[in-house]
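Reader question, answered in our methods column.
A reader sent in the components of a multi-part assembly and asked whether the whole thing could be modeled at once rather than chain by chain. We filled in our standard form and ran it. Here is what they sent:
COMPLEX SIZE: two components
ENTRIES:
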Amino acid sequence: MTDAKYFTTTKKGEIFELKSELNSDKKEKKREAVKKVIASMTVGKDVSALFPDVVNCMQTDNLELKKLVYLYLMNYAKSQPDMAIMAVNTFVKDCEDPNPLIRALAVRTMGCIRVDKITEYLCEPLRKCLKDEDPYVRKTAAVCVAKLYDINAQLVEDQGFLEQLKELLSDSNPMVVANAVAALSEINESSPSGVPLVEMNAPTINKLLTALNECTEWGQVFILDSLSNYNPKDEREAQSICERITPRLAHANAAVVLSAVKVLMKYMEMISDTEFVSVLTRKLAPPLVTLLSSEPEVQYVALRNINLIVQKRPDILKHEMKVFFVKYNDPIYVKLEKLDIMIRLASQANIAQVLSELKEYATEVDVDFVRKAVRAIGRCAIKVEQSAERCVATLLDLIQTKVNYVVQEAIVVIKDIFRKYPNKYESIISTLCENLDTLDEPEARASMIWIIGEYAERIDNADELLESFLEGFADENSQVQLQLLTAIVKLFLKRPADTQELVQQVLSLATQDSDNPDLRDRGYIYWRLLSTDPAAAKEVVLAEKPLISEETDLLEPTLLDELICHIASLASVYHKPPSAFVEGRSGLRKILPASTRLDMKKMEGSGDAQPAVIPSQDSLIIGDLLSMDINPPQVMQQSAPAASYSGPDLLGGGLDALLDVGAPSAPSAPLGPPSIPSNPATGGLLGDIFGLSSSPSTYTSPKTLWLPAVKGKGLEISGTFSRRNGQIYMDMTFTNKAMQPMSGFAIQFNKNSFGLIPGQPLQVPTPLTPNQPCDVSLPMNTTGPVQKMEPLNNLQVAVKNNVDVLYFACLIPMNVLFAEDGQMDKRVFLQTWKDIPTQNEVQYSINNVSANSDAVVQKMQQNNVFTIAKRNVEGQDMLYQSLKLTNNVWVLAEVKIPPSSNNCTVSLSIKSIAVDVAGGVYAAYEGILRS
Amino acid sequence: MSSAAIFILDVKGKVLISRNYRGDIDMGVIEKFMPLLMDKEEEGNVTPILQTGEATFAYIKHNNLYIVSITKMNANIALVFAFLHKLVQVMVEYFKELEEESIRDNFVIIYELMDELLDFGYPQTTDSKILQEFITQEGHKLEIAPRPPMAVTNAVSWRSEGIKYRKNEVFLDVIESVNLLANANGHILRSEIVGAIKMRVYLSGMPELRLGLNDKVLFESTGRGKSKSVELEDVKFHQCVRLSRFEVDRTISFIPPDGEFELMSYRLNTHVKPLIWIESVIERHAHSRVEYMVKAKSQFKRRSTANNVEIVIPVPGDADSPKFKTGIGSVKYAPEQSAIIWTIKSFPGGKEYLMRAHFGLPSVEGEDSEGRPPIQVKFEIPYFTTSGIQVRYLKIIEKSGYQALPWVRYITQNGDYQLRTN
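And here is the structure of the entire assembly that came back:
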């Protein structure tokens, strides 16, 4: 006999019939009726009308029936909140049933009924169940705390459930510990302030590690995930946790393995013992490879994560290329991910194998996969120079297949190869030109046009070819139009004699017939250039192009670090931070612990690599006026270094040149005077250029001695901080008091309250000869990791030179952190002033200041403190001012200035949500007012 | 953290049964699943994770059913997929088949299971042996209400106490699957062995077991480096094995679950000759015919024999009028797979066989270009492991002191065994 019969019902008066059956005296009939109700619910019929009748069946000694009634309650309680109260008594009673199964069932179900009135009644039973003698009940109650927190967080905090939950972390039963950890992690993640409500400490972690060996596979995942949120206090602790977690890599459950990988990847950052790290690295590879034999969905998750791991620590899988070879019957999503990883792992050692695989894939049937394989060949050519020739040969073979989409993809990547290796493979241009007619995708057309323009002097009929594109100019995609414009101008500059007509045609098409402002503007610029100074035009249009970087699609490093903390989660699959797809929850951004050792090599390396390298087509090109329109600009992560490098390139290579050449009528208004030195290494350069007119006279405190020569092994550093044109600088004087010259300078900051990090590598002219002071100004960004310091404005600095690594700490004057956009709207100011509780107001007085209120307003304004209102009360001037710190903390101030303007005492009250900043702000006021 | 709700859908996307675990999601959102999946399939970029504005779907497919998890948060997605597969496994162990019919027939018990498997999105007890002790198909017959078995919360959550057998026995099956990928030139791209030790345990009480293998790391650490041993590249254990113990001294010690389970799996790369090697010559004469000449070689010891060898050779979908010639076994054309299947019941080591096939091709070529699927080979070789792994001992200690006999079998079979063709 099966349950299927409950789905067949008499049509007429069904609800009525069920009602009478539910109220039947016969137990058997009642139970049958409840099953019918649940069956109706399952197929999506609304049976909420039976609520009172079903709830009446709740008091039963039959467990199966009870479960069904509970299920019904969970589904319909929300729609019938008033009637749901009827159930409370039974719940409370069931929570004291002698059978633990029923106690647990009751507390589990009650937590799922999201009706406020019921929640109140839940507290007492829950409190008891958290202390129940049976672990089955305790583990259920632990999860119930998280349920309750989701419904009413305040209630959970007020009732002390958090403390009770924390106690369960020391429970003797591993399953209870695991569920308590899961509940706590969830509560911490959803904490509105972003600050964990319950901090883990070393003894708790120790208990978790013990429970890890004994609980179920799922419990192990909860514990490992919670460990990944913990920051060990030192390297030793990190090492010992790693040692205890490593055995989990041999667990059969893929989720356990990936969560263990997450913890290890995070903690490895803290460990400087290279031997230990390399042993760990070796242990990580086999389990990652084994994940590729699991179910395809798990493989997919694993591959997306491996993609991150390979970017963070390329060493781990560098010898495992073959396991990423694509199998014919792999699902397409697995194939595409494998391909990505193959390219990341490609190196001189394995390139031959990779290429022969890619060639194989390029002849498969799935169009997306084939396209990606062709692109991959191009990427190999750019990445591994020794293979470029073979890659080009392979691409030519593929072009011969005449398969339309293969040819188009091949041409797109060949364009990049030309850029990377100029004057090497141009002999194949004629083959490419044969395929002109088959190109119908904008990207391929644009690439082909770029090639023709770039090598116009070697293609006899370049003019004819370009002219043929010009016929349908209006119908082309804007990317093709831009490219065509540039290509024809290039052609004209190379072969002016017979192409004048063509260039005029394209210029008029671009400037007169197009309503695309980009195209029009570029047309005008070319036109003016060509008409005023053809020599300059040549220099601009035919300038050297910046190099193409080897790696494309690399994640921006801070994002990568964040994602490493999210291994195994959705974020790691999407390659996006959780804030990008999870609604509403602020949560803390997870960051990798800062390496304990200073990674000086890395810093120097990035310093060297910066000039002129821009990411190739797959990411972003702003500096593109020259020629490369292949991709429409995309919005980049704000802190992406790639973006900040290519930004200046635009000015350095393009417009600056343009302007220097002296085109007087060029539309240069927003760009400021043309003589700005372009400095390709700074992130804040655009700010520099645009902000030139802003006030030059912000207050800078005098330099103080930060590192005496005695402690600095002969190096003396004194310095201060300043804010110029919206950029924070660390102004330092380096003096070499030793006998030997010094060199190899680099700088790094510890995590600090305001996320300050160096905006560029330290540039000290080397060698620094003895007794020769040298002034250095280091721009700083506020995009680094944040950690609260004591005092708040403390900054710990490490400076390296050829002698040693030197450490010192200094205080950042708060005024350099006052942002330019700190002016608050008047009404907002009033409201905010009221909203901030009075205990967040701090009073100070500043003695012996000579100033009247106007002078104060002006002085403060120069330092980004804005006066919102001014009043005169009993002869005293009252100023209401606002300022905003770089971390978006608003500070409001009331300044009282007595009428006599000499040597008076100004009183200051400061209000802010984050009251910790008050002291620093006061110091800044004092400094500014006295200046 | 994990699933907000779980749905089981039929192949058309109709909800068969569902359970809302967190109450933070509109259950109606499941209506968007099928259209989204179909869109993605059309675009050719389908993934097992689909995103809508408000939620993420993660799904697996089983017997024409979609098992879908929904989440709004940054869930541990590896856990979600591992759980979905576990859910299917539990249902299969309960109902033999998980399909539309068995869901309708057992909806009451499925609701009960769903309640016990997951709480607020966190997986709980997922061991069907243990679940069967307190969630039974005959729930209503029980006059005394069941209680949660100790095992649910025990450190040993996979075995109940008080199990009794008259005859105490253990069966060990060492099964090695050979994965092979060779390119059209006969070059081996990948060759690995994925081994598994499966157990059937019929033991009373709470026995402590210790398994000894000829593990190279163990042999070297105990100074037996010269004996024949096997280097295991990666080992994965059932949750009953004490992992920290293995990490310390490579001892495999455990209290086994009752009945059938997979104790461990291991993986190693091999450089041995492929056990069955296929050489193929394919001559395509467009618009008229295609000819195959396939040579199969067994490259293992003469005293072993491969059984039930099946060589699957793909042919064009529009091929017709098949003709075969072979000295051994039988050949049949399987048009539904677009392949010919050459079956050899018994294939001794060190032999070589030949098969020829001939097909007609239509004079008009089809529009769709076809891929070139690889040749696949299926086989079983009993009493033989490619890696040379050996069970040296299985010690069984139970406090009642009974004697139990372990039985060991070895078998090697094909895994993903693919040879690309020209």
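What stands out: Chain B touches chain A through 93 residues (CB under 8 Å). The longest strand of chain B covers residues 188-202.
Send us your own complexes using the same form.
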